[in-house]
C-alpha cells in the first residue's frame, strides 16, 4: 500500500473510531461498572483497528468489530485475575451479552445518553462532571476539553483521573437515574452537549459529525424532559448556528463573518424550528443561559433578515448573560456589541482588562476582537499587532487568509 | 516541557514559489512566532540553509569520511525548527497544527529529553 493510501485509510479509521468511541465506552462501562477499565479495553480495540483498518479496510459494522476486540481484552484480563477466574460461568455469560449487544445499534445509542446522566452523578466532583462526559461519552481529547475550560491539559487530565478513580472506589452506579432525578443532573449534560457542538463548529474536519450528534442528543433530552426550558433553549441555540453553517464559507473556502453572510443561504426551516423552540422555552420568561444565548442568536438573525439594527438589545442580553453565567467569553462578545452602539472606548477598556487573563494569550477570538475594536478606533498599529497574533493562532487556511486581508486593510 | 517542532518541506517546490507568495508565507511564520511569544511558549527558532550545503561526517576507525549534500533522495528535507515550552504533547501538537509550515510540508513534533531523565 502506498504512503498516501495508508494515510487515507488511517484517517478513515480515525474518523470511524472517533464516532464510535462515545457509544462503545457508554455501553462497556454500563456493563463493567468501571469507566477506566472500559476505556482501557477500548484503547486496545482502537489500536488494533488503526493497525488493521488502513490495510484491510473499515469493517461493515465498526462498532461490533471494536466491541469484539474490547471483549476479548476484558476476558484476557479476567483470566489473568485468579479471583475472578473461579467464576468462569459468569464470564461466559458476560461475553455472550457483549457479543449480542454488538448487534443492537439502537440500544447502544440510547445508552450514551444514560451514561451522560450517570457522569452527572451527585457523588462525582462538580468540576469533573462535564469534562467526564466530554471525554468518555463524546470522545473529545483532554487537550480539547482543557482549552474549553481554560485550564492546562495536565490539570484537566488529573481531574479526570481522580473522577474515574472515585467512580470505581465508591462504586457509583452507571444506571439511568429516575425521571425526577434527571432534571437535577441536567446542567453538566447540557454543558457537554453544547461543548461538543462548539468543538465541532471550530474543528473543520470533524465538524459535521460531532455537530449533528450534539443536535441529536439535545433533541432526545428535549423529548425526555419536555417541561424543562433549558434543553429547548440549547437546541434552539444550536439550530440557529447550524442554519448558518453553509454561509460561513465562500465558494472558494474563504471565511465569511456574520455581517457579510448571504441570508439566502441560511436554512430558514431550521431557523423557524429554533424560533419555535425558543418561544416555548421562554413561555414563562427566560430563566437560563442557553435561552439567553439563543435570544442573542435570534437577535443577530433578525437584524440580518429585517435590516434593522438591534445592538442595544444585544448589549442588554449580554448584560443578563454576564450575570447568570459570567465568563471572559461573555465579556469579549459584549465588548464587540458595545462598539456597535458607539461605545468603542468602553469596549477597548474591557478588552485591555481581559489581557491580564493568561487564558486569553492563545485564545483566537480574543485577538480577533481586540484587532477589530482597535481598527474601528483608528488605532492602526495596535490593530495590526493584534491581527498578527490572531493569524499566528489560526489553523485554518481560510480564516488565516481572511485575517491577512483585514490586517492589510488596517495598514493601508 | 520542551518540544522541537521540526519543519520538513520539499526544497524544489520551495524554490519555485512566487516572490509574493513567499512574502505571505514569511509573514505567516512571523505571525506564528508572535502568537507563540504572547502565549509564553516560544523558546527559539531557526531556519536552515538548503540541504545541498549539508555535509555528513562519519568516523570509522581512523577513517574520517565527509560526504557533501544533497545526502538523501527524499522529497521533504529538514529545513527549520521551533523549540517551544508547553504543558504536554497535546498542546505541542496543537501548536504544530497552527504552524503555517504544516500547510506546505510536515511538522514533526519531538519532546526534548529533560536533563532529569538521565538521572538514576
Automatic annotation (TrEMBL), chain A:
This is RNA polymerase subunit sigma-70. InterPro entries: DUF6596, RNA_pol_sigma70_r2, RNA_pol_sigma_r2, RNA_pol_sigma_r3/r4-like. Residues 19-81 form the RNA polymerase sigma-70 region domain. It comes from Rhizobium lentis. Residues 185-281 form the DUF6596 domain. PANTHER family: BLL6612 PROTEIN, BLL6612 PROTEIN-RELATED. It comes from the Bacteria. It holds the Pfam family Sigma70_r2.
Automatic annotation (TrEMBL), chain B:
It holds the Pfam family YCII. InterPro entries: Dimeric_a/b-barrel (IPR011008), YCII (IPR005545). Signal peptide: none annotated. It comes from the Bacteria. Residues 1-114 form the YCII-related domain. Belongs to the YciI family. This is YCII-related domain-containing protein. It comes from Rhizobium lentis. The lineage of its organism: Bacteria, Pseudomonadati, Pseudomonadota, Alphaproteobacteria, Hyphomicrobiales.
